[in-house]
Amino acid sequence: MTAKVFIDGEAGTTGLQIRQRLENHAGIEIVSIDPARRKDRVARAELLNSVDVAILCLPDDGAREAISLIETDTVRVIDASTAFRTAPGWVYGFPEMTQTQRHDIAGASRVTNAGCYATGSVAILRPLVDAEIVPGDGAVSIIGVSGYSGGGRGMIAEFEDSSSPIYTTVPFRLYGLGLTHKHVPEIQAHAGLERPPLFAPAVGRFAQGMIVEVPLDLNVLPGTPCMADVHATLADAYANEPFVTVVPLAESGALATLSPEALNGTNNMHLHVFGSAENSQILVVSTLDNLGKGASGQAVQNLNIMLDLPEADGLLLYAA
Question: Which ranges of the chain have pLDDT less than 50?
């Protein structure tokens, strides 16, 4: 039996990519709204209440409105906005985060898809906090750079539309300089941190792809762990995961550079540990497609788990 899925907001960047992944998915029937009635509350409500799963690809206020329109208690929801990422009653949609996360997602009626920067950050920090290598009450810094598609239509126009008043030709720029980025609360909550991490995001002149960096001074961490300890903790946490790979230390050490676009088009994430054993400073880095594992791919992965379907259905595994 196929499951009926409605993507509310399928014309947006995330919605389009989810639809592409589901079009040839044998277990899914996509239900679409008449484009002329896309903003019609009655038409949206009819569809939202008629499907097995609604995937919301809307701004935060739009997602809240969509939830208010759902009156049928059998409709399950995956929300791709930031509206519910720390809300009670919602399961966090990062399946690899803990040993029980898949089980929780499988039984959930409400799943909040993890954010792109948050996926890369929590993947690094949660195992290290759980293992007490990084203290949950300590100060944590995160640096990230993403392709401009992560900023939605406005940022896409800034980099692609030469007729736009905000068009720019800069190759790279910082943003979020007030240090109040919307992903900070979910990173704090799901990484197990007692205080907000210092998060410094940037955007580059490339459409998609992402690098997230967490620098660590091992000398000030409890028990003064070594580089191999950090790597082993991450490797144990993600052993046998189909989408998350902890790259061997020797392989990472042989790299001279790292591209944010290397995993584009996939649902994969790679974790690297770089640094110097001599000065006890390391850099833990995640790379992922901000529209793949950071958005659309992860939504499809969560959908498969919720419907008890093969987890990789509709997803392209990266083969190096």
Answer: 318-320
